[in-house]
Specification:
Layout lengths: L3 H13 L2 E2 H10 L5 H4 L12 H4 L1 H17 L6 E6 L5 H10 L3 H6 E6 L3 H10 L5 E4 L11 E6 L8 E6 L2 E9 L5 E7 L14 E4 L1 H17 L1 E10 L9 E4 L2 E3 L9 E3 L2 E2 H10 L4 E5 H7 L2 H9 L3 H11 L1 H5 L2 E6 L1
Parallel strand pairs: 2-3, 2-5, 3-4, 5-10, 10-14
Antiparallel strand pairs: 1-7, 6-7, 6-9, 7-8, 10-16, 11-12, 11-13, 15-16
Helix pairs in contact: 5-6, 9-10, 12-13
The structure holds S-adenosyl-L-homocysteine.
Amino acid sequence: MSTPLEIIIRQLITHNGSLSVAAYWSLCLSHPEYGYYMNRNPLGEEGDFTTAPEISQLFGEMVSVWIAEKWREIGSPKRIYLTELGPGRGTLMLDILRIAKIVPDFSTSIHLHLVETSPRFRAKQAETLKDYHVTWHDDLSTLPDDAPVIFVGNEFLDALPVEQYVFQDGKWFERMIGLDVYKNFTWGLRSSRFDFDPPPYQDRAVLEISPARESVVLDLAVRLHKQGGAALLIDYGHDKSGYGDTLQAVRKHQYANVLKDCGEIDITSHVDFGKLKEILEQDGLSVHLSSQENFLKRMGIEMRAAQLSLKSQEIQSGFHRLVDPDQMGELFRVMEIK
Ligand code: SAH
């Protein structure tokens, strides 16, 4: 049985030719009617995947410590626009705001803005954050610009699409999605005029580039230059650019086929933090990359976990999932921008 979105995409390919990975990805996740993020409640045990804030309150508490530190560094302004990108169920923000109350001046300076495209997630965020005043945005362009801004985004960048290029027989090709004789989606290659970095490349090397992610960080940069502030972006990925196919789909906590059941699977890829850092530094910003383990320890997670785990075994296990290098501690990277 085809999903409604498969029928739409099949028609598009029949009429207009094969789609780039980025175009297919955008349709799968963000089609206004049938896109994965528009329709589903993907997060948590009953959903398709779990994220750090859903695992433990410790995560949001440490992010709150970081935000308070940046607020102080920029001179404890009376007003800041705390802006979250892709807030999911609103859990991270709820934990941030709870801990922020420890420093009343900081807490009252916060004006809350959420950038979220999905109506379902917006409804969930409104429910979670019902005690706060929230303004939603479809993208960054409508955010206010008359005070400093602090951005946070956990597993936001990985939702933005990548293009893939393959080096074969001495040339680069773009990886495409077309139809086989049975009208099933299939991988293909289209010749490409691109020429990346100096050769030699290994045959069949795959290069992923993400104009969508690059454009978001450049938008953040414009805001930081103009308004002052800082940004914290957390995702799984790598600090050094490299080659390799990192595209993956998940459904119900299991890996799934990227080319099957579109609209019902989540598609992501590793974030090339090395490339984003290079772009931001060229733009005059200061960027620091670390592992999630190092970041959370620097913010004091060990002490907080010890304090709370006297009351709860769950805190202890959440701590280990977030920090241990064989769990999320190493694969997840933290990018601090100012
Ligand atoms: N940060 C949350 C959720 C991560 S899932 C957490 O850690 O639990 C990705 C989130 O980004 C969802 O809220 C999704 O709806 C949102 N999203 C995906 N693409 C987006 C886009 N282009 N603009 C704004 N939000 C987007």
